[in-house]
Design brief:
The complex is a heterotrimer. By secondary structure, chain A is mostly helical. Chain A is 72% helix and 0% strand. Chain A has a single domain (40-292), classed as MetI-like fold (Orthogonal Bundle). Chain B is mainly α. Chain B has one domain (82-305): MetI-like (MetI-like fold, Orthogonal Bundle). Chain B has a two-stranded antiparallel ribbon. The mean pLDDT of chain B is 90. The chains are: A mainly alpha, B mainly alpha, C alpha/beta. Chains in contact: A-B, A-C, B-C. The interface between B and C is medium-sized, with 13 and 16 residues. The structure holds adenosine-5'-triphosphate (ATP) and magnesium ion (MG). The site of magnesium ion (MG) has 3 residues of chain C, from helix 1. Chain A: Keywords: Cell membrane, Membrane, Transmembrane, Transmembrane helix, Transport. Chain A: Residues 62-280 form the ABC transmembrane type-1 domain. Chain A: InterPro entries: MetI-like (IPR000515), MetI-like_sf (IPR035906), Phosphate_PstA (IPR005672).
Amino acid sequence: MNAKKIDKFATGILYTIAGIVVLILIMLLGFIILRGVPQLSWSFLTSPSNAFSAGGGIGIQLFNSLYLLILTMLISLPIALGASIYLNEYAKPGMITNTVRTMIEILSSLPSVVVGLFGFLLFVVQFKLSFSIVSGALALTVFNLPLLTRSIEEALKAISNDQRNGGLALGISKWETVTKIILPAAVPSIVSGLILSAGRVFGEAAALIYTAGQSAPALNFGNWNPFDIDSPLNPMRPAETLAVHIWKINSEGIMPDAAAVSAGSAAVLIIVVLLFNLSARWLGRTLYRHLTAS
Amino acid sequence: MDKIRASILTPSRSSKLERRGKWLSLLCLGSICIVVIAIFGFITYRGLATFTTDHVSLSKFLTGTDWNPSVSKSGAPLVGALPMIAGSFLITILATALAIPFAIGTALMMTDVTPKTGTRILQPVLELLVGIPSVVYGFVGLTVVVPAMRNIFGGSGFGILSGTFVLFVMVLPTITSMTVDALTSVPKSFRYASLALGATRWQTIYKVVLRSATPGILTAIVFGMARAFGEALAVQMVVGNATLMPYSLVAPASTLTSVLTTGIGNTVMGTAQNDALWSLALILLIMSLTFNLAIHLIANRGSLKR
Amino acid sequence: MTTGNCYILKFDSKQEIALETKQLKIFYDEYEAISAADLQIPRFKITALIGASGSGKSTFLRSLNRMNDGIASVQGQIWYRDLDLNSREIDVYAMRRQIGMVFQRPNPFPKSIYENITFALERHGITDKKELDERVETALRQAALWDEVKDKLNKSALALSGGQAQRLCIARAIALKPDILLLDEPASALDPISTAQLEETLINLKQQYTIVIVTHNLPQAARISDYTAHFSQGVVVEFNGTTETFTQPKIALTNEYVSGDFG
Ligand SMILES: Nc1ncnc2c1ncn2[C@@H]1O[C@H](COP(=O)(O)OP(=O)(O)OP(=O)(O)O)[C@@H](O)[C@H]1O
Ligand SMILES: [Mg+2]
């Protein structure tokens, strides 16, 4: 009798807890959407920001975020592919492999601010790349590599050994078996992992404030020569991203409409991350179907 | 004479490709390892300057409560890091402690109480919570939590408590999803056996499921703590950034990360003020290692028991 | 067990032998899975490897084209065209082109039927479109699959039935025109009809290929093979013509095994 009552009570508590968690998410999203979405307009999304007066947009920051994201992925994807191929296909179990895995694990659990500080020391100061897109992309690469490597490794591991044997038995090198058979077969889950990590990179700020910098100089969107100073493609210019922008205007507190701009920016960030999440699933599933379809 | 025989004796295109591919992939892996070593090298080197160049004693650094690096006292700058260390630990412990019951409860809903609907609803909730960037948490903290604290407790509203609430939501999904993994790895047969003996669901959960999942849950908690300890911007936005001992939960305080984010840009490389910040970064690094070590220890313990 | 308890048939002429193992020992760490096997594989014949589960048939077969590299440690020699396949100067990839293998579970690549066959050919330097087309057709005909797939060569191979997929794997292997074909229980995942088709395919192939097949299906071994080797606990206890092995085994262990008498 008593045990039954306790059981009922405990179940009630568990339902309450889960309800609170759901409620927290609804309130969070609700707050951001309700506050942020009304701010969104074409001019908000495309015009440059105003530091001291109201009515500025986030155009440059949005572009910077996307540009940095693409550069980061371009640098980190090949490295992560190579590293995960070695780990999953070549590394023999043993002390060295264990150490390497531990190192990657440590890297993945480092606070992103530490990664940013390292990026500052190495790329900005040591390599004299100053606060720039390159410095930022390199720092984000360091931030992104361990998780991306692990997710690609998981994707490779999920492909049956039968496929590897099949390639090897035909006299094909392991390398080509992996790159031409295993990797394509793993593409659906690799793409999902890639997009999810893109979401993480897109929202990252702590690794960027001392690498890509906190300023967004005006850009001339008519000039696509990467060597010109006002070209959007110039990788040597400082580039405040959307996430950094939210942090900056809130901690400085000089922008009169900081709250409104932040809410709008936060809404954009969330929507982009949501899109990434959804497309990761959709694309993963579609690619998988495409791959196995007759 | 024998063409086949000859072909087997000459290095093939495949064997060349194989060697090249293996080296190429090893190079990629090696570069990640080099980055890890470089991070530790650089930050340790910078972080030790406070003690070697600026002659601050380690015990003063760790136990001093005055943080004023631009002021020198008896030959060494005033860099007592205890306020930030205390702030970091306090905020981490409070946020994690608050998150644990919610995380375990939510995880239980997904594994034992209503596995189907629970997972269908809660899994996306967790994924969304993880996906929200930390500056967004900071912004919501700043516009919702801080004013709420101000209304309830007076003062500015900035402080450890605001940080705790923000971090609570941030570590919740981490701990929950890892706890779910721990709970699902408890064999179904354990549950059936317990239920068959007449135990109620709660008794089964409490006496069997949670018990055998303890190492996994502990790992989840340490992971959450590591995330909380290293979180920078969200905390920095709500904690108040006063380098004072956190005597009150609702008065401005600071953490290692918050001082670092605000400080690095305002100091000049090579000065004592700057060195002191790198020492804080070193503490962060060491703590991150410590959390890692703890996770390994728990994992080893757990596997020994089986 | 001494050699006295074994009967191993030897061939008179070197011409008859495609592959020969000498004192082949295979270890998984400390565990000796094959102890000192001396076996001559006859050319253009089907040799069946039979024996209880865990007796080392797969282990033996896989080491014949070095698929055990990095998994097991192999000692002794495998002679092929006056070369020891275990020696350092052998290019394993070129060697495996000559000694192909088909596995228990059909493992077509997630590519089209056509690409499944051309993929390895291209890797081995055959890129002429006409030759590729030709080889694909010949291989599929030899594997008795051509009529079933000729209209869907560009469809995914993953849509094939188990039996078709297995024959595709055989086609893929013979498209390389190897010397020797190693098959590890190729029919064990197939239904009786697919199995019969596969057996017919193998019998037709033996005019051009030396075939070694591991099987648990004794009637199958009796139907298709010319020679049979019986493995027991890592030892080749008997190797003889298939008829002899099944009707008048020389060794008691073999007698027990082929008559299903495990008492
Ligand atoms: N990768 C491996 N690592 C360690 N031991 C192995 C490995 N593969 C096989 N063995 C062992 O070697 C012995 C021979 O195995 P093998 O697979 O060659 O047997 P088999 O005759 O092919 O059996 P089956 O008819 O079941 O396929 C067995 O005792 C097995 O446990
Ligand atoms: Mg076998």
